[in-house]
Write a structure and sequence with these properties.
This protein is about 40% helix and about 20% strand. Helix 1 links the parallel strand 1 and strand 2. The model has no long low-confidence stretch (mean pLDDT about 95).
Length: about 200
């Protein structure tokens, strides 16, 4: 089975990138039948800006831009999507949010039916979210940041499209054993990506 690992961090030497690599290694270690592709949005120069062309697509007045079609094709080839990202202001970085805004389009990820009900079109694509943060777990709990992220991202984006969130992990700098423990947990996350699909 094939996974797409999307990473959104400008520095290839960052812990975020190392965690993405550990996830990939965990996927490969789980079985020779598994493969993964790393989509490094920063290195690839993905344009996160929602333009008039994107709005025309949303209004069903134009075909998807070529870069959006290419991302959707990568997702269509994947049996699972893993997103690895640093937490900026208690959410996605702008680059990753823009990727979601532009790629998870009406007609491909979801569709409004004539009755007004949303048709969820990504039910076949399990999601694994790996967020890398600097604050401690108490801060996330005390201020409701973790719950807000789950509401906004797990439910608001992926459930809206029908894509089941199989895991949603916070890897925090305050965890004992930092940074080795984060890399170990990332490997374990990778090893379990296809465990529920066998």
């Amino acid at each position: 089975m094939h996974s797409l690992i999307v990473v959104a961090h400008p520095n290839p030497d960052s812990l975020t990138h190392a965690i993405a690599q550990s996830v990939a290694q965990g996927i490969m270690a789980a079985g020779s039948e598994h493969s993964s592709e790393l989509a490094d949005l920063a290195a690839e120069g993905f344009d996160p800006r929602f333009t008039l062309a994107d709005q025309a697509l949303f209004m069903a007045r134009a075909a998807p831009p070529a870069d959006v079609l290419a991302e959707q094709a990568r997702l269509d080839r994947a049996d699972a999507l893993v997103i690895v990202y640093p937490i900026y202001w208690w959410s996605f970085p702008a680059l990753l949010k823009g990727w979601i805004d532009r790629v998870f389009t009406q007609g491909w990820a979801y569709e409004a039916s004539d009755s007004g009900k949303v048709v969820k079109k990504l039910q076949r694509l399990p999601i694994h979210l790996v967020a890398v943060g600097g604050a401690d777990e108490g801060t996330f709990a005390r201020h409701g940041y973790a719950a807000a992220m789950k509401t906004q991202i797990d439910h608001g984006i992926f459930d809206y499209c029908g894509a089941p969130v199989r895991s949603s992990s916070l890897l925090l700098a305050s965890d004992t054993g930092y940074p080795a423990v984060q890399l170990e947990r990332a490997h374990e996350i990778g090893a379990r990506v296809f465990a529920s699909q066998r």
